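Today's session is about reading a structure prediction critically. Students often jump straight to the picture, but the first step is always the sequence itself: look for stretches that repeat, for charged clusters, for runs of hydrophobic residues. Only then move on to the predicted structure, which in these notes is written as discrete structure tokens rather than atom positions. Here is the chain we will use throughout the hour.
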Amino acid sequence: MRAFLTSFKKRGFYTLCVLLAVLLSGSFAAAQSSDKNNLPLLFDARERLALPDLSTVPRVRFLTTVDFPPFNFADQTGRLAGFHVDLAREICAELKIEAKCQIQAMPFADLQPALLANTGDAVIAGIAVSADLRRQFAFSRPFLALPARFVRNLKTLPGNGNAASLAGLPVGVVGGTAHEAMLKAFFPGIKATVFDGDTAMLDALKSGAVAAVFSDGLRLSFWASSAASQSCCALFDGPYLSEHFLGEGMTIMARKSDVALTQAFDHALAALSRNGRLQEIYLRYFPYGLY
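Below is the predicted structure for this chain, in token form.
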């Protein structure tokens, strides 16, 4: 997702939307569980992944950043917090290696060099899996898929409905993005109105110049619930998932040589999915739901 991040978010705009939503809600408090707040299962509940022997591993140093809320950020006391941080701690607890675990934040540009230089053992910071990176690094199985979503203007498009009700109506999308390509492929009957950036697109949505917009569900869920939206709009239909357009999802990156560590992460993630702890962490940081 940081390649998610270079295309998936304009960093300042995204962070502002998240922080506004946090201020509005008071905290990253958990929401009541409902269908829309259920985390799609990425692990088969019947699957049991082997746990490799980690007794000879001296320590496990997770690397992350502090500029990607709600995944990783510094809280009001300066302490590392976020979905990724809590998940790393839960992984260590599941593997019973809490005493060996460390979590360190650094600039995003330093993450890959630090991993290659053995000054860290795993990166949990939203790096998108790519063919080039797979030649250098190993990746865990995905633990969170980021969907595309519609957000509708409540006055222009009242009622719930579905994407079919958008036929013939102007729907905003940012040009040159995976979401533009996905909108055209998934919904050829929708009239796309292309914008240069998120700000112009969302301003048009608030004014009613477009009936809806199609973009990243994470960004839109926080924006629609924040003061920035002025209560104009709401998530609509979906979610829409596509590995082809949106990538594999959130993973943990490790060195290719650390096969046992990557297998251990997969074992822990599958266990956390089965016992509900992954869902609990998701609800803690995504009170408005992505799905």
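Discussion point for the tutorial: The chain is about 35% helix and 20% strand.
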